[in-house]
């Protein structure tokens, strides 16, 4: 399916099982003033539709969202793999985080 065939953003988002919301590649970027830091809007949008996410723990996210309750935070490559794997292999966790939205 080509996403251009979908009528709305909602049609597209409902196809997701897990959200992946990276904001930087490593913690050093957090201190770089040229790194564009966004708020938790993307994660909250996914939660609105019951979709759990793995995301970077930028300050705006950690102020609004709780790790393992609203989102799974990841920093390292291994952390991203583990977070995604947890949501894939643990349907109760995936559903609980999705319902917290």
Structure write-up:
The protein is mainly α and 101 residues long. It has 5 helices and 3 strands; from the N terminus they run αβαβαβαα. It has helices at 9-13, 41-48, 59-64, 77-89, 91-100, and strands at residues 19-21, 53-55, 72-73. Strands 1-2-3 form a 3-stranded parallel beta sheet, with helices on both faces. Helix 3 links the parallel strand 2 (53-55) and strand 3 (72-73). The radius of gyration is 14 Å and the shape is globular. The model has no long low-confidence stretch (mean pLDDT 85).
List strands and helices in order, with pairings:
Layout: H1 9-13, E1 19-21, H2 41-48, E2 53-55, H3 59-64, E3 72-73, H4 77-89, H5 91-100
Parallel strand pairs: 1-2, 2-3
Short descriptors:
single chain, 101 residues, 3 strands, 8% strand
Radius of gyration: 14 Å
| Rough outline | globular
Secondary-structure element sequence? HEHEHEHH
**From the helix content, strand content and strand pairing, which structural class follows?**
mainly alpha
State the strand order across the main sheet.
1-2-3
* Share of helix, binned: 40-55%
> Strand count, sense and closure of the main sheet?
3 strands, parallel
Give me a quick take on this structure.
This protein is mainly alpha-helical. Helix content is 42%, strand content 8%.
């Amino acid at each position: 399916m080509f996403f251009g065939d979908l009528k709305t953003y909602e049609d597209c988002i409902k196809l997701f099982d897990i959200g992946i919301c990276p904001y930087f590649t490593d913690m050093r970027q957090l201190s770089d003033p040229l790194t564009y830091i966004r708020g938790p809007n993307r994660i909250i949008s996914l939660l609105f539709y019951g979709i759990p996410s793995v995301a970077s723990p930028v300050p705006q996210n950690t102020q609004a969202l709780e790790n393992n309750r609203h989102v799974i935070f990841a920093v390292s490559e291994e952390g991203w793999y583990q977070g995604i794997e947890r949501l894939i292999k643990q349907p109760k966790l995936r559903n609980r985080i999705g319902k917290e939205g």
